[in-house]
Amino acid sequence: MPPLKSLIAFEAAARHESFTRGGAEIGLTTSAVSHHVQQLEDFLGIPLFQRHAGRAMLTGTGRIYSRELERAFGAIAEATSLVAPQSQGGYLTIAVPNSFSVKWLQPRLETFLKANPSFRVRLATLHTHELEANRYDIAIAHAPIPPGLKLVEPLLVERLRPLCSPKLKAELGLAQLGDLARATLIHSNTPVTWTDFFRRFEGEVVDPAHELWLDRSAMAIEAAKQGLGVVLESDVLASEELRSGELVPALSDASQVIDNLSYYLIRSSSLRNASEASIFDGWLRREISALETSVRV
């Protein structure tokens, strides 16, 4: 068996994609986390992180190992809650897609923690194929949802539209759907594709000047902010950029949007920490309600 302290340090650093944030969660300094990760790499005989310019990124092997360790630690947590549920009071494990966590949930989480100071929250990256593993108290899952899951409730309707930086919109003279032929179209992991969008409003798919494919919405939104192109994205994930003016609707016709039921809330079938999950659920829905009245532009 590898050293347990090294496994804990690696799992936290990998989940947060940061030695510093991972260390803060488990009470270790950045250098201590780095030492434990190095110890684990020496034990395994393989690199888990690529280190360069003061940054550390998971290798492919490291990502696989991290995913398996997250399952293993989840199994330990579930076993503990079964035999000693009283020890888990105030502890809430929330599984959430990466981009939704980074772009929407984490910036708002401070208000929840201030209102519930006794709570201990753990955010875990959610992978759709892990929904049935039940390694969470509550999950926010992106559609589509695998059939057969219980305790699933609709949570959030996304409004998707073409978004870009104000500078790019002015430079390309974007106003009508056909103008997007002059732009680079940024593709991201959304339930509605550019092809779906064009067929809904144009009838034919517009042939763009260039295309850029990114596998996470957070990356695609950042690329659009930088002026790399036009992204078809959610006003939920891009709410801060829309509010600040870093992104604007690329088209003049405000009706050229697609509303899509994109997120569901799933409770643990074991109903562990049910009272804490209900408190979080109520807060989450109030935040979503406030969002829906503030970003409709």
Give a concise summary.
The chain has helices spanning 4-16, 19-26, 30-44, 60-83, 98-115, 166-172, 194-201, 217-225, 239-244, 274-292; strands at 49-52, 55-58, 91-96, 120-125, 138-142, 152-164, 184-187, 210-213, 230-234, 248-249, 258-267.
Q: Can you give a write-up of this model?
A:
- By secondary structure, the chain is α/β, with parallel strands linked by helices.
- Helix content is 43%, strand content 21%.
- The protein contains ten helices and eleven strands.
- It has helices spanning 4-16, 19-26, 30-44, 60-83, 98-115, 166-172, 194-201, 217-225, 239-244, 274-292; strands at 49-52, 55-58, 91-96, 120-125, 138-142, 152-164, 184-187, 210-213, 230-234, 248-249, 258-267.
- Strands 3, 4, 5, 6, 7, 8, 9, 10 and 11 form a nine-stranded mixed beta sheet that branches. A two-stranded antiparallel sheet has the order 1-2.
- Helix 7 links the parallel strand 7 and strand 8 (210-213).
- It is globular.
- The mean pLDDT is 85.
Structural class: alpha/beta
Number of strands: 11
The largest sheet is: 9 strands, mixed
Name the helicity range.
40-55%
- From the alpha-carbon coordinates, what is the Rg to the nearest angstrom? 21 Å
- The shape is globular
**CA distance, first residue to last residue:** 55 Å
The total of helices stands at: 10
Q: What percent of residues are in strands?
A: 15-25%
Order of helices and strands: HHHEEHEHEEEHEHEHEHEEH
Any low-confidence stretches, pLDDT <50, length ≥5? none
Residue-averaged pLDDT: 85
